[in-house]
Amino acid sequence: MTSLKESMKKDLLEFEKIINYDFKNKELLQIALTHSSFANEHKCFLYNERLEFLGDSVLGLVVSDYIFNVKKNFPEGKLTKIRATVVCEESLSKVAKQINIGNYLFLGKGEKISGGRNRISILADAIEAVIAAIYIDGGYECAKEFILFYLRDTIHNTIDGNIFRDYKTILQEIIQSKNEKLTYKLVDEKGPDHNKEFEMQVRSGGDVLGEGKGKNKKEAEKEAAKNALIKMGQL
């Protein structure tokens, strides 16, 4: 029977091929892909939270430096908004899915069963951890190359105003991470059949998180979710 460490080594080598980066220190990549739930089950393993912390800063610096130099006429406020849109869970989770990082994460049994391999927050955190691991292993330029390879299109789409943000999914992930549930409720409907306006509330428990209006219920729900995220300081 293949031992745990042998199977982990196989996964690490496969993942290196996917991201086209060969780690000098393989342990860094192992830590980057290890979730706390796995480390808690296997007491001898470190996990990726400290790397996430560093990776977030490296990511922010690379994106800031890139847009600062690409858009020399943009004021500070606009640069900040672009960076916030790029450096977010949604963008990072898309990168994570592109490289199938979820398949290579070392998760505890409970986290696997509850869908951890597809959870946006876990995927985004893992990408930040991998960025930090590359930064430590190969330096700033290697980390920059990795970040821009996967996020350059997102940066330019954001600059051009072509980025689409799925506010309902973002809000749902945030609320699920707190073990709470979201509900949407129709609170008003007015106007003639050919020109109706719907007003929806999004709630968690008994709390109203946000309200939104639209020409149909789905549009109103999206607006409610967006307004909830703004109130929560997530946008």
Describe the structure.
The chain folds into two domains: 4-159, Ribonuclease III domain (Ribonuclease iii, N-terminal Endonuclease Domain, Chain A), CATH 1.10.1520; 167-231, Double Stranded RNA Binding Domain. Helix content is 60%, strand content 11%. It has eleven helices and three strands. A hairpin with a 2-residue loop joins strand 2 and strand 3. The longest helix is centred in the first third of the chain and has 22 residues, at 49-70. The protein is globular. The termini are far apart.
Describe the protein's topology.
Blueprint: H1 4-19, H2 26-32, H3 36-41, H4 49-70, H5 76-86, H6 89-98, H7 109-113, H8 120-138, H9 140-159, H10 167-176, E1 182-190, E2 197-204, E3 207-214, H11 217-231
Antiparallel strand pairs: 1-2, 2-3
Helix pairs in contact: 2-8, 4-5, 4-8, 4-9, 5-9, 6-8, 8-9, 10-11
Subunit structure: Homodimer.
Family: Belongs to the ribonuclease III family.
Catalytic activity: Endonucleolytic cleavage to 5'-phosphomonoester
